[in-house]
Amino acid sequence: MADLKERLLPPKPQSAINIRDASYRPSASGRQPFQGMDLSGLKKRGQGLRSWIRVDTSGNSQIIEVDKFTMMRRCDLPARDLRLLDPLFVYPSTILGREKAIVVNLEQIRCIITADEVLLLNSLDSYVLQYVVELQRRLTSGVGEVWQSEGPELNRRRSSRGFDNVYGSTSPDYLPFEFRALEVALEAACTFLDSQAAELEIEAYPLLDELTSKISTLNLERVRRLKSRLVALTRRVQKVRDEIEQLMDDDGDMAEMYLTEKKSRMESSFYGDQSLVGFRSNDGLSASAPVSPVASPPELRRLEKSLSIARSRHESMRSSESATENIEELEMLLEAYFVLIDSTLNKLTSLKEYIDDTEDFINIQLGAIVV
After folding, report:
1. Which of 181, 234, 184 lies closest to 204 in space, CA to CA?
2. 234 backbone dihedrals φ, ψ, rounded to 5°
3. Residue 268 pLDDT exceeds 80
4. Residue 184: which of 150, 119, 239, 134 has the closest Cα?
5. Residues 109, 113, 114, CA angle at the centre, nearest 5°?
6. pTM strictly above 0.70
């Protein structure tokens, strides 16, 4: 029967060989296919666990390993926001205010700020470590020390707006936790960019003066590279400046970043709902099972409706009043670092103008030599 089947049926093509049979056939080296491969580790590598540095409101830090989807649920963030923090990609500087978090991508500082913690991608970068150390210092130190380190101009603005009278000069909680973490990130980014601009100035002006005295191919090449670095740094500084300016111009985005206030409102609303459930259970109704609107007494339904309307009006009035009053805190914070980054941009603009003037001078000299 087998011989008859082989004579009648055409030969099986090589591509139709059963993969399962081929997997057990030894290779030329005598080893079984997939031998020595850790197939159980493929799932672990696919989970995408990453190491994060967590700093809480008390200044305590720890290293945690969390995958992407857990972090999305933990901070209530979409996947596109987490991509901004990916060190494998280069994204422009961004500050995003979300429902429960602030996503910060400022130069080397890439972190997620919530009302209770700051999460940074674990890195050996010195700027990341300095950010953690500085944040811990400010969370555990008094407000007077922080204000003295920020300069007399910012102190004058805060005192003129009445911050000392409202919050007191000895309280370390003059700003919510999320704004204190954001301030350290802004300071780190602005200081880093300003130091790079200063280094470029120190290198540029002697080189340009040397080019005016001696026009050579080497000096021209050095100036060309210098100008390329200047253009790249100017773009980065301009992006940080535009991001801060955009936040200052949008009151809605600034109000969205008050995470501690939103959290307290949600908790008070939750406790209000719990008290309403307790009132219903004390009135003889079951708190565990849902109450049918048809079976509920009309007096109780009217009471629940009136309480809900009153609570929603109170919450909306309080949120609008707090938004108009407290936005000034964040606006002042952004204004201080906007002035700093704008000063850095002015340095770079002046340097570019000096380079353009030097190029014009060299063109005039070369034109005179040709004539």
Report:
1. 234
2. -65, -40
3. no
4. 134
5. 170
6. no
